[in-house]
Design brief:
By secondary structure, the protein is of the alpha/beta class. The protein is built from 18 helices and 22 strands. Helix 6 packs across helix 7.
Length: 540
């Protein structure tokens, strides 16, 4: 999976690097060697003219590779990534027929599985123009229950067997904040949106502790390969936290996990009276809570101010009432937890900002309120992000994946505030960048390329989609390092390679501050180091 760390040394020198880090103001600082102390922290940055230490316990010539701070994914789902690698993954399928064949093959290869469980389907990518049905899933597998989450995690697709085991019928009412897609006579058609997913999730078997442990190991291996040394885990449950702790107790927690509990109940159980301390040499901390205010654009669950252009009767699904949102935020803030609110639609973003404005007087100081995604924002609300000092936690790869869907879902006027990174930055908003893995790949060079170009991996559209919202290379790198650390109250230990910081870094085969978008996409991590220890090496 990933390399075991070599024994700690008194001093480690990594020489002959094209070193780049960002200073306290976000300005690039270049260096040619890095000296690491026995405590796994950066001891000194050296330039070409600086004298090297005469005696070190370990020295490595990096051969001119570029050294960067370890990437920080400001918004991801660690266990989701791990289970994506364990279970059925439909994210690469381009049609319903291809998905059906993959489901059929997976079931045949895994006859012992009582349920076929997976993720990654996307009816927009299939060009289906509608949600798939239970009958279409029955055509692939009918003798066992099948339950597949949409790529964004905001809808689930079940076959007739799964729906029957969940005891969902035409008489079952839509839960608050959810929608059951229905067929003739109101019978469940196969897709369950947002809160309605719980109806089927309650019937499927829960993963065992060993399943969680394996998922964590697989996720860490993938993250280290991508050069991600820290990740904000958005929505940690108690069983997931216990898996993190088991790995930490055994010395197997390589990646730093900045945990945000999944709603108030998990927050209270895990943190108790307040955020946890930093554990395992700063490898783990639960310092905040994630609250869901709406769904996703792809499943038309994002809460909009006006109806969807391609579904005039729908405005999305608010998952919390204004009172419930404020009650949860107060409960978290009273005990010192940071609040991160999932808001995709413009109405959800406006509601989140209203709630933050209401609470700011009662909870002054450095709260670092976060809004996760902030995908569709009324331009009139962008300035409120800055005035309320709200961090915009955004995922550049969503824009390149979603652009054609966004054009279908929204009218031209609302696209003005869609994925508006440069407008946010210009207004003075702090940007933290991530991937929302496993919804998207966490490979950071894809995120950097999207951020600076607004062009997808297919080279489209020429010149970039709403290219005025692209950001500079320095801002993109900052979003995946220094500002991602700041967004999680971790800027005093990770995010840069300045002296005193944890020596988390990557060696890569190109310079991201000089590269084009296509060159960025082609870059690869050669080595990943965490706390001054080499944790992953690319095989020749």
């Amino acid at each position: 999976m990933f390399a075991l760390p070599f024994p700690a040394h008194a001093d480690t020198l990594i020489d002959n690097v094209n070193g780049i880090t960002l200073d306290a103001e976000g300005q690039p600082q270049r260096f040619t060697a890095l000296l690491i102390g026995a405590d796994g922290r950066v001891k000194q940055l050296l330039d070409r003219k600086d004298k090297r230490p005469e005696r070190v316990d370990f020295k490595q010539d990096a051969g001119g590779l570029t050294m960067l701070p370890g990437f920080i994914d400001a918004h991801g789902h660690v266990m989701g990534l791990g289970f994506q690698r364990m279970l059925l993954d439909l994210s690469g399928t381009a049609s319903l027929a291809e998905a059906q064949e993959k489901i059929r093959a997976f079931a045949a290869e895994n006859p012992e599985m009582p349920w076929i469980i997976g993720t990654g389907w996307n009816q927009e990518r299939w060009g289906l123009g509608r949600f798939p049905t239970a009958a279409e899933l029955d055509a692939a597998v009918a003798d066992r229950p099948v339950w597949l989450e949409r790529v964004d995690g905001h809808a689930g697709w079940g076959n007739s067997r799964a729906i029957a085991l969940a005891k969902v019928t035409a008489a079952t009412r839509d839960p608050e904040g959810g929608r059951i897609e229905r067929g003739p006579g109101g019978a469940p058609a196969g897709v369950f949106v947002d809160a309605a997913m719980a109806l089927v999730n309650a019937a499927k078997p829960a993963p065992l502790a060993r399943d969680l442990d394996r998922a964590l190991a697989l996720a860490q291996g993938a993250l280290l390969e991508w050069g991600i040394t820290s990740i904000a885990d958005m929505g940690t449950t108690l069983p997931e936290w216990q898996a993190f702790r088991r790995a930490g107790d055994k010395g197997e927690l390589a990646v730093r996990i900045l945990s945000y509990a999944g709603d108030i109940d998990n927050m209270a159980i895990i943190g108790g009276p307040g955020p946890t301390p930093w554990l395992y040499d700063d490898r783990l901390r639960m310092g905040g809570v994630k609250l869901y205010l709406d769904g996703a654009l792809g499943s038309r669950g994002a809460w909009l101010k006006a109806p969807y252009a391609d579904a005039p009767g729908q405005r999305g699904l608010p998952l919390l009432t204004p009172a419930a949102l404020r009650n949860k935020m107060v409960r978290a803030a009273m005990d010192g937890f940071q609040v991160a609110v999932h808001a995709i639609g413009d109405q959800a973003n406006a509601e989140a900002l209203d709630a933050i404005a209401d609470l700011s007087a009662d909870f002054p100081g450095d709260r670092r309120w976060r809004i996760e995604h902030a995908q569709i924002v009324d331009p009139a609300d962008i300035g409120r992000f800055a005035s309320l000092r709200v961090i915009a936690s955004m995922q550049p790869v969503h824009q390149t994946s979603d652009r054609t869907m966004a054009e279908a879902r929204l009218d031209a006027a609302r696209l003005t505030g869609a994925y508006a990174w440069r407008s946010m930055e210009r207004a003075g908003v702090r940007l933290a960048f991530g991937s929302d893995v496993p919804v998207e790949s966490a490979e950071p060079f894809a995120g950097l390329a999207a951020a600076i170009s607004r062009i997808g991996p297919d080279g489209q559209p020429f010149g970039g989609w709403r290219a005025q919202e692209a950001v500079s290379r320095e801002t993109a790198l900052d979003g995946f390092t220094r500002s991602a650390a700041y967004a999680a109250f971790a800027e005093d230990r990770i995010g840069t390679l300045m002296p005193g910081m944890r020596a988390d870094f990557v060696l890569v085969d190109g310079d991201p501050l000089l590269a084009s978008a296509s060159e960025l996409r082609a870059m690869r991590v050669r080595e990943t180091w965490v706390g001054g220890q080499r944790r992953w090496v690319r095989k020749p």
